[in-house]
Every structure is written in structure tokens, then in C-alpha cells.
């Protein structure tokens, strides 16, 4: 989370395009990035000497301010799903979601998708390693984007996750996804998380079924 998302597409094959949101200089992007810093700093700070009493008071003040300006949840849900909003609030790529890394996923000319990221403290499972559920989250979403890129998408019906070796925190990781086949409404998609050296830490096989949940209106 301390590593700002690389929006340049550097390291991606020529002709790759971002499929998820890229950070803008909008107040909401900056406020959400600041909230991510707070989440990480709270985990890292010296418990005894950081005056957490005052921190709690100030953070509650900010939360109250935001709540006072929140429309009805139903209205916000409609707004969330409009336009580019589709990729701005999810818990993986959402630049308006402070719990998202955020990951930027690129569509590659060969039909697959890829994102690169460094995962840090808030997502720790075993010491120094990415939590297995977080790896599954990253891959489920990346497979969903791979389906979008391939032109036929659906809801996750099954996600078979294999953990090959611990996934390191604080090191660059590559998240890959590719649609393999479509059989009627059934879509099969695979993906993996690799280290910079290309070692596979986690691989997944997903079954998606072409079914849409209506967007709130
Ligand atoms: C490019 C732009 C970028 C965009 C970014 C945004 C990307 C967003 C990415 C978001 C990514 C996040 C993704 C998420 O988080 S999706 C959220 C997590 N998933 C769910 O909540 C899904 C909940 N389940 C359902 O809604 C339905 O049960 C589904 C959709 C799964 C099936 O639906 P439905 O009930 O209508 O299906 P059917 O009964 O007519 O069966 C149809 C066929 O499928 C076969 N079958 C069914 N279920 C299973 C199963 N579990 N295993 C094996 N097979 C199964 C079935 O045998 C039959 O096969 P056949 O008899 O025809 O051979």
C-alpha cells in the first residue's frame, strides 16, 4: 500500500491497455489514498508513543464529517454503478475504495490480462507472506477482468485455488488471468500470482457462469 500504483504500463507488452481505473488527481482519489496510508501507518506505528487517543478522536471526526455528507445508501448504490464507477469501488482495483490495493489490470494483445503490485502489511497472513484469502480475492477479480477482456463474462461459480509456495509481502508480484474456453453459459478461466523471478506462488482455475445481477437503478 505504500507503493503507489504504477500507471505507466511500464513492463507490459506493447499494445496493452488499462482495463481498470487509473489514478486521477481527483479529491476522492487523493482522500482514498490518504486513508490507505492511515490503515498502513496504524499497523506500523509505535503503540506506546503515537498518541493513539488523539488519533482515534481525529479519525472519528473525519468519519462523522463524511457520514454527514453521505446520501441514502440506495442512491449511492445507483451512482456507484454508473459509467466508470464500475471499476472505481471494488475491493481490488477500486481507486475510491481504501481497502483496495489498488491493482491496475491491463489487457494484453494476446488476450490475457496482467497486473503488477507489491502487497504490504495490511494483507499479511503468515509472517511476511500474503494472506491466502487475499490472493484468492486478487485472482477472482483478475479472472473476472480477463473474462471482460475476452468478451464473455459471468459470476464465479467455482474457484479452485492451489497455493504452491508462500507469496511474499514487499516484493513485486505479477497477477495473471486468461479466459481458456466458453461452453454454453460456462466459462473457464485460469490465473496465477508470480514473483518477479517468475515463480508461481498461487494458481487458480475458475468456473464462471454467464449470469448478470441487475445494476441498481
Ligand atoms: C473491461 C472492463 C473491466 C471491468 C472490470 C469489472 C470486472 C468485475 C470482475 C468481478 C469479479 C468478481 C466475481 C464475483 O465476485 S461474482 C460473486 C461470487 N459469486 C456468486 O455470488 C455466484 C452465486 N451463484 C449464482 O449466482 C449461481 O448459482 C451461478 C451464477 C453460479 C449459476 O447460475 P445458474 O443458477 O443460473 O446456473 P444453472 O443452474 O442454470 O447452471 C448453468 C450451468 O452451470 C453449471 N453450474 C452452475 N453452478 C455451478 C457450480 N457452482 N459448479 C459447477 N457447475 C455449476 C450447471 O451445472 C449448468 O451446467 P450444464 O448443466 O448446463 O452443463
UniProtKB/TrEMBL annotation:
Record localization: Cell projection, Ruffle membrane; Cytoplasm; Membrane
Key words, A-Z: Apoptosis, Cell membrane, Cell projection, Cytoplasm, Fatty acid metabolism, Hydrolase, Lipid metabolism, Membrane, Transit peptide
Protein name: Acyl-coenzyme A thioesterase THEM4
UniProt key word Hydrolase: yes
GO molecular function: hydrolase activity
Segments forming a coiled coil: none
Membrane topology, as annotated: Peripheral membrane protein
Region described as Disordered: spans on this chain: 1-24
Any Pfam family: 4HBT
SUPFAM superfamilies tied to this protein: Thioesterase/thiol ester dehydrase-isomerase
GO cellular component: cytoplasm; membrane
Domain RHA1-ro05818 N-terminal helical: 19-75
Catalyses which reaction(s): (5Z,8Z,11Z,14Z)-eicosatetraenoyl-CoA + H2O = (5Z,8Z,11Z,14Z)-eicosatetraenoate + CoA + H(+); tetradecanoyl-CoA + H2O = tetradecanoate + CoA + H(+); hexadecanoyl-CoA + H2O = hexadecanoate + CoA + H(+); (9Z)-octadecenoyl-CoA + H2O = (9Z)-octadecenoate + CoA + H(+)
EC number: 3.1.2.2
Any GO BP annotation: fatty acid metabolic process
Similarity section: Belongs to the THEM4/THEM5 thioesterase family.
Principal place of residence: membrane
Species per Swiss-Prot/TrEMBL record: Speluncibacter jeojiensis
Record InterPro entries: HotDog_dom_sf, RHA1_ro05818_N, THEM4/THEM5_acyl-CoA_thioest, Thioestr_dom
Domain Thioesterase as annotated: residue spans: 128-201
Top EC class, one word: hydrolase
Amino acid at each position: 500500500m505504500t507503493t503507489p500504483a504504477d500507471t505507466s504500463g511500464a513492463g507490459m507488452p506493447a499494445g496493452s491497455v488499462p482495463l481498470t481505473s487509473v489514478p486521477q488527481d481527483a479529491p476522492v482519489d487523493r482522500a482514498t489514498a490518504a486513508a490507505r496510508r492511515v490503515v498502513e501507518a496504524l499497523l506500523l506505528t509505535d503503540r506506546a508513543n503515537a498518541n493513539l487517543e488523539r488519533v482515534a478522536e481525529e479519525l472519528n471526526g473525519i468519519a462523522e464529517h463524511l457520514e454527514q455528507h453521505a446520501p441514502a445508501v440506495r442512491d449511492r448504490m445507483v451512482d456507484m454503478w454508473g459509467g466508470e464507477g464500475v471499476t472505481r469501488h471494488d475491493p481490488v482495483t477500486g481507486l475510491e475504495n481504501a481497502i483496495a490495493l489498488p491493482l491496475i489490470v491491463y489487457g494484453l494483445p494476446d488476450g490475457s490480462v496482467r497486473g503488477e503490485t507489491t502487497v504490504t502489511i495490511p494483507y499479511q497472513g503468515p509472517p511476511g507472506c500474503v494472506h491466502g484469502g487475499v490472493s484468492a480475492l486478487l485472482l477472482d477479480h483478475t479472472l473476472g477482468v480477463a473474462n471482460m477482456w475476452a468478451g464473455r463474462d459471468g459470476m464465479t461459480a467455482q474457484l479452485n485455488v492451489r497455493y504452491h509456495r508462500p507469496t511474499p509481502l514487499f516484493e513485486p508480484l505479477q497477477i495473471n488471468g486468461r479466459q481458456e474456453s466458453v461452453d454454453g453459459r460456462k466459462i473457464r478461466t485460469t490465473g496465477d500470482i508470480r514473483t518477479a523471478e517468475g515463480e508461481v506462488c498461487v494458481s487458480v482455475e475458475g468456473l464462471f457462469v454467464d449470469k448478470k445481477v441487475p445494476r441498481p437503478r
